[in-house]
Amino acid sequence: MLSKRAYNFNAGPAALPLKVLERVQAEFVDFQGTGMSIMEMSHRGAVYESVHNEAQERLLSLLGNPKGYKVLFLQGGASTQFAMLPLNFLSEGQVGSYVMTGSWSDKAYKEAKLLGKAHIAASSADEKYMRLPNVESLDLPEHTAYVHMTSNETIEGTQFKQFPDTGSVPLIVDMSSDIFCKPFDVTQFGLIYAGAQKNLGPSGVTVVVAREELLASSPSNIPTMLRYSTYEKNNSLYNTPPSFAIYMVNEVLKWIQEEGGLEGIERVNQQKAALLYDRIDSSEGFYRGCVDSRDRSIMNVTFRLANEDLEKQFIKESEQAGFIGLKGHRSVGGLRASIYNAVPLENCQALAEFMDSFKQRNR
Ligand SMILES: *Cc1c(COP(=O)(O)O)cnc(C)c1O
């Protein structure tokens, strides 16, 4: 059956692979002959538990099965991680050091300040986050408990290509909007986290991958559900997990493996991003990229037109032509095409053609 699919460039929740949606649909009502959907079964039963474990194994396998790392499934979105990090890792007299690159790192930093001492180790705030700060030599105070970075700033459209060596200080990275967009070495990080709804699945589950000893180090005087150690000790089954979302993540990971793993995914992602950035760069100023070209994200392509009226017209006409989600975040304005893993190359080609024709008609 052919489905009519929108050109979906939503920032999150975002496009999911059609193959995944169709597979899930096929087993929606009767999961593997059980006579019920996966949503209707006990999270303590063997059927669900094997899906749960499989999702963790696939995640680790895509990361090259790093020694000493564990996968947790949590709720409350990446935003709850902003608070869990200082709660778990900032003890009395310690400092959390933050690299400020945009809206999301700012939120993470503010949560840490509520709960302990937070320090700004590098920042491009005075350039309105339109480029990334130099992180080669970070300004780290004594007693730094961890360094926090945001790998991809979803709203501004910047993305780190490299990470600093923080030595014995754990590097913690919010990868919500670019996890698994390309291969990476997880062993350079103490902990990474991502809300699923951009590159991993539907909303409702947050994935954490971290060194075991970090996860085990939670203090015992914070609420049980906010301790990493609770999830670590109980295989993320201390309470009812978001079972349907985890099942979906497993299906998306399967799809990544079928697409040639992270190398295969990156190849297509680079093509998609190049298509759109080429349109911007060759438009003789009709389209203007928002961020320094060296720091551009291959997940969120942000750009502007000569004035806000023209931007409004672009959004209106793009919607009429079947493109969804091209309006920039309300805090920064402009336009944004989110081209996560599941957005097909053909959709980016269609957008590039629309950009050409819009320029022809309006320059
Ligand atoms: C979307 C996003 C978040 C917020 O995620 P929630 O799951 O809505 O809490 C945090 N960080 C980044 C980089 C994001 O893109």
UniProtKB/TrEMBL annotation:
GO terms for biological process: L-serine biosynthetic process. Homodimer. Catalyzes the reversible conversion of 3-phosphohydroxypyruvate to phosphoserine and of 3-hydroxy-2-oxo-4-phosphonooxybutanoate to phosphohydroxythreonine. The gene is serC. Residues 7-351 form the Aminotransferase class V domain. Binds 1 pyridoxal phosphate per subunit. Pyridoxal 5'-phosphate binds at A78, S79, W104, T154, D174, Q197, N239, T240. This is Phosphoserine aminotransferase. It comes from Paenibacillus kribbensis.
